[in-house]
Amino acid sequence: MRTVTLGLSASAVLLVAMSASVHADFHASTDRFGYTGEIVKYAALSDALTGTNRLASYDTLPSVPARPQDPNGRDVAIYFVSDDSGFDTWKPFLFETAWYYSLTGSAFSGSGNPNNTSAGFVQLYDDSPRQTVTSATAHWTDANLDTFYLKIDGENAGREEASARLWHGPGTGYSGVDEGGFLSYSLEMVAELPDSAVWDSALGYYVYDSFDFAEEPVSVDGSFTGIFKDTTATGAGFYTFDLTLDMNSWAFEQPGLANQLYYTSFGATRVVPEPSSLVAIWSGLALFAAVWVRRRWRNKGDAAL
């Protein structure tokens, strides 16, 4: 009887420990991934919200033949540090094309980089201090600490607030002529890593750092979605964007860029079990409960005799 009760208590404690969050400190920094996707233009915000009355649809970003991994995609830079994290004092939300790696000329000038192009450029640079993020969360998805989840939502990210810009469709354009901003945006990402995160006593949470190509993430599943309002004379309208993250990075396949690349670093306190893990935990709790009830009923029967 005592052994069964202790087993039930241990399982309950495990469930609470995995679900609880001591605090929400985290950081995410990676240039490993790429993106591609669809941009659709509408005349009215109501149409963009409902997906009706399309004016134009762009299934891919403008082709860049020099990017053979996916000519219609772009490399992406993702960066976020929570308010209380000690990872860095610089705390904007960065989602932008990783245009700056250089094959020729000075480092970080974008020289020779096929991503350094105006056409079809989707960019959000939320200046520091952060101004447009409405919610942000991150956690490790299970006790293995090798899968990192990130979710960031925001709104009203214009040029003055965040240097935000979307070059409309597969045409021309650059930051000097495009005006407008992201009315809403949402980044969701799940990155699988080749090894487990380790406890960082200075930061107070689990951190995974890569230091070479072999330690970079092995897979990604995610998207960057939202609505952009263009206020230029030539491109005025509302644009929905649905971009998919992938592993197609031009920069990470260029041996000559090894001395420039910013490697991945993910960190978070929270460990949230996946649905399959929760099912296993609850099944275990149910089994312990059933055994406890059965034994208690049997003991009562023995006492009656």
Which labels suit this protein?
305 residues, alpha+beta, 2 domains, 15-stranded antiparallel beta sheet, 4 helices, 15 strands, 34% strand, disordered N terminus
Globular, elongated, flat, extended or rod-shaped: what is the shape? globular
Beta-strand portion reads 25-35%
Estimated helix fraction: 10-25%
Q: How many beta-strand segments? A: 15
SSE-based structural type? alpha+beta
Distance between the termini: 19 Å
Ranges where pLDDT stays below 50 over 5 or more residues in a row are 1-23, 169-176, 276-282, 287-293
Please state the CA-atom Rg, rounded to the nearest Å: 24 Å
Mean pLDDT: 78
Counting DSSP H or I runs of 4 or more residues, the number of helices is 4
Number of domains: 2
Biggest sheet statistics:
15 strands, antiparallel
- Please provide the ordered H/E string of secondary-structure elements: HEEHEEEEEEHEEEEEEEH
Short note summarizing the structure:
The protein has 305 residues and is α+β, with helices and mostly antiparallel strands.
Any overview of this molecule?
This protein has four helices and 15 strands. The chain folds into two domains: 1-21 and 274-305, no CATH class; 22-269, no CATH class. It has a 15-stranded antiparallel sheet that branches. Mean pLDDT is 78; it is low at 1-23, 169-176, 276-282 and 287-293. The protein is globular. It has helices at 2-19, 45-50, 159-162, 275-304; strands at 26-30, 34-42, 56-58, 74-81, 93-97, 122-126, 133-140, 147-158, 165-166, 180-192, 198-200, 205-209, 219-230, 237-246, 265-268. Strand 13 (219-230) and strand 14 form a beta hairpin. It has 305 residues and is α+β, with helices and mostly antiparallel strands.
